[in-house]
Amino acid sequence: MPTATRTNPLSFLTDQLDELKAKGTHFKLRVLDDEQAPVCTFDGKRVINLASNNYLGFTTHPKLREAALEATRKYGVGSGAVRTIAGTMKIHMELEEKIARFKNVEACVVFQSGFTANAGTVSSFLGKDDYIISDELNHASIIDGCRLSRAKILVFRHKDVAHAEEQLASVKNEPGKKLLISDGVFSMDGDIGPLPGLCDAAEKYGAIMMVDDAHASGVLGRQGRGTVDHFGIHGRVDIQVGTLSKAIGALGGYVCGTRDLIDFLCHRARPFLFLPRIRHPLPRPALRPSTFSKPNHSGWSNSGPTPASGKKNSACSASTSEAKPLPPAKPQSRPSSSATDA
Ligand SMILES: Cc1ncc(COP(=O)(O)O)c(C=O)c1O
Predict the structure, then answer these.
(1) What torsion, rounded to 10 degrees, do the Cα atoms 13, 14, 19, 23 define?
(2) Which of 116, 220, 246 to mutate to test the pocket of ligand 1 (most atoms within 8 A of CB)?
(3) Does the annotation count 246 as an active-site position?
């Protein structure tokens, strides 16, 4: 029981909240009374919802609801362990294979969220002697991953390829690894990153190229394959991150790339090693859009090319397979203006 004389060691929080209130940046959470729909009820008021990331309406799609219920009945409500101990389920492997094929890469690993996918990936393979060249408006999960890695961070002006190149040039004689990283579609404004120019710069300076396609997957590129497909730059982006929590309507994140990259992440990415898996009712729905009849909803189908060797694309297998490059995609128009962050 606290004594009368004890001072509150957390009183600084109240001071900081008061500062936010004084600046007008303190907010109250809006509470959704019903389901995530184009017209729904927040705080008792019927509104048109233009702020959601549920771009394709999958969050409430009847087939996904049904699939989530079916998976819960069949497997329970969790995987019960981290993946490296006893928590790897067949449905995780199926989901990874499906995403890898869809993105036309060798392999994929699923994380608990896009946030942990970004933060866990960047911090797994870079250290204090390395350099990260990062767009100033990249997502917070990238920024946190950069900080966790302890690498030196060089920020370039938003979408400014020449500035990114300048930053790369400034460290070209340094021995560390260099990572050039950009959102595919930026979370706050919905604008598209200049990926072809950034790939040119990364290739010129031998940097690793990474794209966070959280907002583009399901929206841009053929059948929603993302910005790499939108720009026809298959094979030029070493690491693609995505999420299942926006256009796919569920929860979870993923990383796509070479089999060695994915195998490495399974051994070194801390969220993969130390956090339990996404609950399995979620991978199941994410597998399901392949059954949708509308052509634009076929994003997660296996209609993408099979890896040349026909080998499986799931994570942490020692064997290698080669993804067969898709033909270049024609550039498309920008995504819908609803590509804003929640
Ligand atoms: C650009 C971007 N990357 C990553 C994330 C994280 O994704 P998730 O919601 O799956 O954690 C978000 C989510 O807001 C995002 O906007």
Answers:
(1) 110
(2) 246
(3) yes
Distance CA 323, CA 306 (A): 7
Backbone torsions φ then ψ of 271, nearest 5 degrees: -65, -30
Q: Write b or e for each residue in 46-58: b if 16 or more Cβ atoms lie within 10 A of its Cβ, otherwise e.
A: eeeeeebbbbbeb
How many angstroms separate the CA atoms of 261 and 88, rounded? 19
Q: How confident is the model at residue 331 (pLDDT cuts 50, 70, 90)?
A: very low
Distance between CA atoms of 124 and 182, rounded to whole angstroms? 18
Closest atom of ligand 1 to CA, residue 342: 14
Q: What is the pLDDT of residues 160-190, one digit of tens each?
A: 999 999 999 999 999 999 999 999 999 999 9
How many CB atoms neighbour CB 78 within 10 A?
14
Q: pTM for the whole thing?
A: 0.85
Question: What's the CA gap between 91 and 67, in Å, rounded?
Answer: 12
285's CB contacts (< 8 A; 6+ apart) are 58, 64, 65, 67, 68, 71, 248, 249, 250
Asked about 187 being catalytic, the answer comes back as yes
| Structure token pair of residue 171 | 């460290």
Q: Which residue type occupies 155? A: V
